[in-house]
Amino acid sequence: MNEKASVSKELNAKHTKVLEGLSKLPENRECADCQSKAPRWASINLGIFICLQCSGIHRSLGVHISKVRSTTLDTWLPEQVAFMQSISNKKSNSYWEAELPPNFDRNPIEKFIHSKYVDKKWASKTTVQPMPVVGQKGYSPERSVGVSRSGIPKKARKYSLEEEAFSNSMPHIASTTRARGGSLDLMNDNILAPPKATISEQSTSRKSIDTATDLFSLLYVSDAQQDRSVVPPSRWATFD
C-alpha cells in the first residue's frame, strides 16, 4: 500500500501550512543553492528549500542524491515534514558549504550544485551529513495540529496509546488470574480425606466385631454339639 494514501486531505493541508511557515523562516527564505528569494520546492532527503530552477537541477542528479517535492503541490508524509523542520538551509549548508570560500561565484549554477552534492567538494570533513532518521521527533505539534512529536498522526497514535495501556494492564490481569488459580489450587489442596476413626471408636468397633464373632461361635458350637450328641434309646423301644 502507498504510504501517501494514508495521508488524509486534512492532514496534507496542515502539512502544507507547516511547510509554508518553515519556508518563511529567516534561515529558509533564500534558496539553499542559488540564494534566490521565496523558495517553493524542497529536497526531502537533504532537508533544504530550493527554487524552481534549482529543483530541476536536483532532479537531474538522481533520487539517490536528492528527492525533490513541491511544498504546495505534492503529498508529504509526517516524517518528511519532521525532517524538514529539524533541518534548515542554514544547518544543511553548514555541512555542504563548510569549506566554500567566501563570496564564491555560484554560476553556472548547474556545475555548482553538482560539485556541491555529488562531488562533495566543499562538504565538512569533521561533521556528519544530516540524514533522515526513523521516528523523527523534530515535528512539533505546536506548528502542526493533529500530528504528534514522533511524526505520527494523533488519530493513529491514539490507537497505539490505547494498545500500550491495554498491554500495561495485562500483567495485572494475569497476576490476578494466577492468584485466583492459586486459590483454587489451595482449595483443592485443602480438601481433607475422610476423618480417621479415633482410638475409642476403633476399640468400640472391634468389641462389636468380637462380640458378634463370639456369638456366632457359640451358636455354631451349640449346633455342632447338638448334631454330635447321641440320644439314648428309649426304654419303651427296648421293651419286649
Number of helical segments?
7
Termini Cα gap: 136 Å
User: What structural category do the secondary elements indicate?
Assistant: mainly alpha
Radius of gyration: 49 Å
Order of helices and strands: HEEHEHHHHH
Lateral arrangement of strands in the main beta sheet:
2-1-3
Average pLDDT taken over every residue: 74
Percent of residues in β-strands? under 5%
| Low-confidence runs of at least 5 consecutive residues | 138-161, 179-192, 218-224, 226-231, 236-240
Query: How many distinct beta strands?
Result: 3
- Estimate the helix proportion, in percent: 40-55%
Form type: globular
How would you sum up the major sheet? 3 strands, antiparallel
Name the descriptors:
single chain; 240 residues; mainly alpha; 3-stranded antiparallel β-sheet; 3 strands; 49% helix
Explain this structure to me?
With about 240 residues, the chain is mostly helical. About 50% of the residues lie in helices and about 5% in strands. It contains seven helices and three strands. The protein has helices at about 10-25, 50-60, 80-85, 90-95, 110-120, 155-190, 200-230, and strands at about 40-45, 50, 70. Strands 2-1-3 form a three-stranded antiparallel sheet. A hairpin with a 4-residue loop joins strand 1 and strand 2. Helix 1 (about 10-25) packs parallel to helix 3 (about 80-85) and helix 2 (about 50-60) packs across helix 5. Residues about 140-160, about 180-190, about 220-225, about 225-230 and about 235-240 have low confidence and may be disordered.
Question: Mind sketching the topology for me?
Answer:
Elements: H1 9-23, E1 41-43, E2 48-50, H2 52-61, E3 68-70, H3 78-86, H4 89-96, H5 109-118, H6 154-189, H7 199-228
Antiparallel strand pairs: 1-2, 1-3
Helix pairs in contact: 1-3, 2-5
